[in-house]
Design a protein that fits this description.
The complex is a heterodimer of chains A (about 220) and B (about 110).
Chain A: E1 5-12, H1 15-30, E2 34-40, H2 46-57, E3 63-69, H3 74-82, E4 85-90, H4 99-109, E5 116-120, E6 137-143, H5 150-153, H6 155-160, E7 163-167, H7 179-189, E8 194-197, H8 206-219
Parallel strand pairs in A: 2-5, 2-6, 3-4, 3-5, 6-7, 7-8
Chain B: H1 3-20, E1 26-34, H2 41-52, E2 61-67, E3 70-73, E4 79-81, E5 97-101, E6 105-112
Parallel strand pairs in B: 1-2
Antiparallel strand pairs in B: 1-6, 3-4, 3-5
Helix pairs in contact in B: 1-2
The chains are: A alpha/beta (about 220), B alpha+beta (about 110).
């Protein structure tokens, strides 16, 4: 019988994911496509925010959307109707997209004729933020009805994203949502984060968000 | 619940390591999981048997070392467990700290021959 020995591995479980994500970023850069990973809880208005964004930007660029959903292709049809190229990934019981899954979506979509691609992640404030998808920017959407306490309850997502959209500001008066308190809580976790209060429904504030997207796309 | 996928990833990495280092038999896998990691040790343990079932690792044991969530106070530099002290420095009561450990998920080592 051979003697047992200890072999040190010291490998982070996410190393392979980061490798795939970096390869994706390189490939997207080669094809001149800019990928934004959109995360939020279910019902915050990811799809309607994307629809308004597509409508605002489609005259200037070609946009694609990768929809990740447990089932159904409702979202993909909606964004296609708004004027974007879209694919729907059925993710079943998964709680997040990793770089390999995101890559599959990108390959299926085909980005050669696209300038901007949104990856609509699975509705979940916890798991998606732990996985690099290969996106150039990560953003989160929080809607007014969810409450201004979410940064206290789910700090990780607010700490890590580049920008935060506060959606549904058109219903602000019906909720105890304090924008100043929210901003203070978010800045405590992430002092450089961009915050865009918008209403995907009325279009209020949308141009600040779309201007930021355009600026960041030019900057790379 | 994404632990099963994580366990498969662990087995994949260990398997690649075993092939590379000509290991005949892996007796034990030792993981380091931070208290703030997205993986919950109890769930990792409970889905581990399913992941190794009918593979070359069927008899391989699993050990999990928990790494505490520690932070360093930005005011007085006290190092403390941020879960235990609810993110408030026990020495000076400041609420601003930098995270030192707790988000790890590492495959530390394997015991093998």
């Amino acid at each position: 019988m051979n003697e047992l020995k200890i072999f040190s591995i010291q490998k982070n479980i996410h190393e392979d994911n980061v490798k795939v994500a970096n390869e994706t970023r390189e490939e997207l850069n080669r094809q001149n496509a800019y990928l934004i990973n959109v995360m939020s809880s279910p019902g915050s208005g990811k799809t309607s925010t994307l629809v308004s964004t597509i409508k605002a930007l489609k005259g200037e660029m070609n946009i694609g959307v990768i929809e990740a959903d447990v089932d159904s292709d409702v979202d993909a049809r909606t964004v296609m109707n708004a004027g974007a190229k879209a694919v729907q990934m059925h993710t079943g019981g998964l709680c997040h997209l990793d770089a390999t899954m995101a890559r599959r979506g990108i390959d299926e979509l085909g980005v050669e004729d696209l300038d901007l691609v949104f990856l609509e992640n699975i509705g979940n404030l916890i798991c998606p933020v732990g996985y690099d998808t290969g996106a150039m920017k990560n953003i989160a959407i929080l809607s007014v009805p969810e409450g201004d306490d979410k940064p206290l309850k789910y700090p990780m997502i607010f700490a890590k994203v580049d920008a935060l959209i506060i959606n549904k500001i058109d219903v602000m008066e019906h909720f105890d949502f304090n924008m100043e308190v929210l901003e203070e809580r978010v800045r405590k976790l992430n002092k450089d984060i961009k915050i865009f209060p918008i209403s995907a429904k009325t279009g209020e504030g949308l141009s600040h968000w779309t201007d930021w997207v355009k600026t960041e796309m030019k900057r790379r | 619940m994404h632990e099963l996928g994580i366990v498969y990833e662990v087995i994949k990495i260990v398997d690649a390591f075993a092939v590379e280092n000509n290991l005949i038999k892996v007796d034990k896998i030792i993981l380091e999981i931070g208290e703030l990691s997205q993986a919950i040790p109890r769930f990792i343990e409970s889905c581990y048997p399913a992941a190794i079932s009918e593979t070359a690792y069927e008899d391989t044991k699993l050990e999990i070392i928990t790494i505490p969530a520690t932070g360093e106070c930005r005011s007085c530099h006290e190092v403390f467990n941020i879960i235990e002290h609810r993110k408030i420095c026990p020495k000076c009561q400041a609420e601003d700290f930098s995270l030192i450990s707790g988000q790890e998920f590492n495959i530390k080592e394997v015991v093998a021959y």
